[in-house]
Fold this protein.
Amino acid sequence: MVTDLYDPKTCERREKENNPQTLGEWYTNPNIIKYGDVEHKITQRSIVVLPKKKLMKNPRKPTDIVVYTDSYCYSACSLVTKGLKEWGGAILVRFDGDPYGEDDDFEVGLSPTTVIDINDIDEDNLIKQYGYKFRISFTETYRYNYEYNERIPREFLTDMIDERVNIYSYPYIIDIFEEETKQIRWGYQTKCNPNNKRLVKRDEKCDKEINIEHGHGGYECGDNGEWSTKCVLSYCDEGYKFDYNNNKCIEDVCVNPPTDDGTPSMTVNLVMIIIGIITLIL
């Protein structure tokens, strides 16, 4: 895991091998976040850099992608669903759950953290002797913010669904999912979720109107639940990252890392997830 961590400013690997004898300053000199009188110590902010998968020749637009989630979407699943919600990458739909619940009661995912089972660390622990399991979260993920100053881990922030369907966990229901997916996709040609401004109806006509270098635009969802005529930045060219907070495209240092003389050099593009790891300091 530690070999996947990189410095977000230089894209240098934090450690060259897993389980090193000593950890670098990124770990030994932690950041401290104060919540009132409580101090929360975490490592210096890092990103996880993973090999990029082969892109499709004709990728679908976010409004043509429907992703289903349920109450069991946590850990790795919630990293995907929360990431899609933050980037406006798909229509997030909830199935199963309380049939009488309101849409505002359902999140796209829960607990986007990595956990350790205490039984794997100490097989003779007292908890195991009583027949219980105990897991500890040790990796916190944070929302995409390229100033790297987020203070609240994702697991404490809510990300609500776009739509909900009355499909429950019964066998032989693939055809029902297919039909619901078609209806949702068709509906989003004109309708949208007014509470989700990140999901944008992409249109090349907006590229010139937004006039942002390396940026591409689309139409924002209006407060009336229909697509507006307002053009906003939707995504950036490959090799650039969408800085949503500052509404611009910034160069991806992991694609064009700086050389010794400060000029960028081209390397293989990589996918990044902003993370922070809890530092256990006695």
Q: What stands out?
A: The two ends are 22 Å apart (CA to CA). Confidence is low (pLDDT under 50) at residues 264-282. The chain is about 15% helix and 25% strand. The longest helix spans residues 174-187.
